[in-house]
Amino acid sequence: MPKTPETSTQKTRIQNQNESLILDAALDVFSTYGYRGTTVDQIAVKCGLSKPNLLYYFRRKEDIYTAVLQRTLALWLEPLQALNPDNDPIEELTRYIKAKLDLTFARPEASKLFANEILHGATHVAPFLKGPLKDLVATKADVIRSWVQAGQIRPVEPAHLIFAIWSVTQHYADFSVQVEAVLGGKPSAEALKTTVCDILLRGLKITR
Amino acid sequence: MPKTPETSTQKTRIQNQNESLILDAALDVFSTYGYRGTTVDQIAVKCGLSKPNLLYYFRRKEDIYTAVLQRTLALWLEPLQALNPDNDPIEELTRYIKAKLDLTFARPEASKLFANEILHGATHVAPFLKGPLKDLVATKADVIRSWVQAGQIRPVEPAHLIFAIWSVTQHYADFSVQVEAVLGGKPSAEALKTTVCDILLRGLKITR
DNA sequence: ACGACTCTTGACCATTTGATCAAGAATTAA
DNA sequence: TTAATTCTTGATCAAATGGTCAAGAGTCGT
After folding, report:
1. Record: contact B181-A133, CB cut-off 8 A
2. pLDDT band for position A2 (50/70/90)?
């Protein structure tokens, strides 16, 4: 009986190589055209493989989609996980926002893919949202709450501060077309970091 | 020669009625499934007309899409247009944010439709972004700049403050699935207004 | 070199879907 | 009522697309 890649125990050199090729191409195409707007053939052309060959590595189009989505989720949790309760809150939040913006500029396709998935009901990542993401936000909300109680920052709804950081930073990836149209060009990544931190964090600083 | 609705000078009672039915249904479906994810038949079923009948009123699927998109654009400009330079800046910005959030909760489909359009390259609204939207933002950025120069609020990059307001408010429509998954339920619209205004505007207030 | 397994693809299929059209039903103005 | 116009739809088409398959090409351990 011929083994299919999915059921094989050990991955071949060629398997690793081609799956990687496919997922890279798929990220590009899915993030640009959405799930339904993407054809398997588009991905195939982009990575230089034939359509049946793609479907040899991933049985269904949906399998490609979930695989590429899965690969980006870890990337999403990472920066928030690093929020350290023992450091200065403004410094920590500044670092977090800057890390998020770095991600936004380095991997805008990942942001767009995720945005599209949520926008259309998150049918493939609902467990992720209700599980790991919810838990992580709860944990980090506690961190922010502890900063408030220690008088290190002014009172704020922790979860909504996190939402605000997410939405503003990802806005520059997801809505880049609009941002560039309105500004008349790409904003500088470095200037943006200062500007965004300013808008989001200045209200948290204790003034005396 | 039979007249097609598009070329007729005066619209019939039935024309007005059915076009409205179609566009209402189309907004729902397009905002949920995206452009490619939507079939003409889905819209037809939703509004109780036959598919060929839809295509009698709108020749192509794309015409339905642009029509429903067009109808929402005015809605988008409205609240920002009301920003009045002669009033107190914090009050004005608070009013703007609350109006935006009201829109978000009243018409989340409109927000999602727009988000989806931008996310996928804004191919149908590029002229809108580079024209009316850009102009309006420029005008209102001047208003904000004048507040800064008058010492009424602390210095801020006006365009990016506007972006921040857009992204945060629309986040609660576009990413509602994520917000609700993380919070474990729908946030209260009224509480949200206070929270969001707080996060976005507290940093602008002059402290003495 | 050989045999077993893995990889690749041209040809093909079934379904979906945007769009057309002719013919009939409903509406409207006279 | 009548005739012109507008509205409606069943039937149908062509193209796009997800997915299959058998047969051949390539790879690898021995």
Report:
1. yes
2. very low
